[in-house]
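User: Second chain of the day. Same drill as before.
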Amino acid sequence: LRARVVGEGANLGVTQRGRIEAAQHGVRLNTDAIDNSAGVDTSDHEVNIKILLGDVVVRGDMTLKQRDQLLVAMTDEVAGLVLADNYLQSQALTIAQARGAELLEAQARFVRSLEKAGRLNRAIEYLPDEEELAARMANRQGLTRPELAVLLAYAKITLYDELLASELPDDPFMHEDLVRYFPAPLRERFGEAIGRHRLRREIVATGVTNSIVNRVGPVFVKEMMEKTGMGPADVARAYAVVRDAFQLRPLWKAIEELDTRVPAGVQTAMLVETIRLLERTVAWFLTGGAHPLSIAAEAETYRPGVEALTSNLDAVLDAEEAARLAARAAVYAADGVPEDLAKRIAALPVLASAPDLVRIAARTGRAVAGVAAVYFQLGRRFGLEWLRDKAAAAKTENHWQKQAVAAIVDDLFAHQTALTVRVLDGVSNGGNGHPVDDWIAQRRPVVERVEQLVSELRTQANVDLAMLAVANRQLRGLTAG
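Assistant: Same format as last time:
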């Protein structure tokens, strides 16, 4: 095979074993199911549109001739909707492939869970056995694109079934996902008919499934379930809250509009940053919110705080953190990313703390910007951001070590939140207008112990799990004091 790229216009143009071998030798290809999925998607749209218009005709609001004329007029827009779906599906594979070995262990656990549930036979699907998975983990090699395509398909099938069996498709907030499925002429003229579509639950479940799996990958829902103990529908609700509170749809659109204008790898890197935001904040809503989450209410509660933090970053970050953010933005800008978009992507790691800040602001009756200034000052003073960076870079040998590191990162965020609340609670007790300095002055001995420990860690060439655990314990003592 001398081709560098293969697209399969028919079923089984290449066997799955052949695809995997070709991919391992640098050929870029998917599977026949991925390459032909637009045909299936087109048929789905055709059937669902005809069901909708059939109801309209039966009710006497349109003649059959008018229906046929409208179908012809919508041809190009339906094609656009279908192509957009398939663009995102291929993009999901590109992102998963780019993250490679980082996700392999989670992917392996997902495969095992599907096998245990009787939903997957990995031998039939030519997915790696345990011996091959161990070898790839040792060699830092991820799944090939054809293997990822199989995983993506099973993720969508499984999640769709779980969401359809839940109450999520009946949530009024999901009506937007239902409406978005249809072309503009139908949205504008037949909104009421769309709401009574006899397959509306199936359309919503499909739309939500595609949004989640295409945007955050095949193993995201499983990972969130393992981390929080919540169910698939709960994860979907939290995902919808974050997507809307952080206005990710226009952000994704801005990234995708850079096609052919910036290197594809740059777009992928920016999209991965949005995934990391979702990983952090979806888990936050799952562990810290009342369930089932009210998607509309939660999004409306947190969106203004996210906007306030975004617009006030220059004022609430200290010079060092602002310089780090500017440096991250400059890297994207150097590759041709517009300045505003580069700054927004660079700020996402900082904005991930917005839910905590909004909650603290509501609890203390203060503005989000004022809370943020204290929060980030404490993070800098006690090296919390630095410790989280070191934790993210820590070498881990297995799933359990990764879980331990993730728990420490969560604790470090929790410490920063708890410290912020303590400092703000003490403001009313007097002071010189510098709440962090005032609070520290009253706890000098324990503060000095923490600062000495962090200072010592900064001298180490490598910060390992044991060091992080000790720092975490010291900080816990600080928040309790």
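The longest helix spans residues 399-425.

User: Great, on to the next one.
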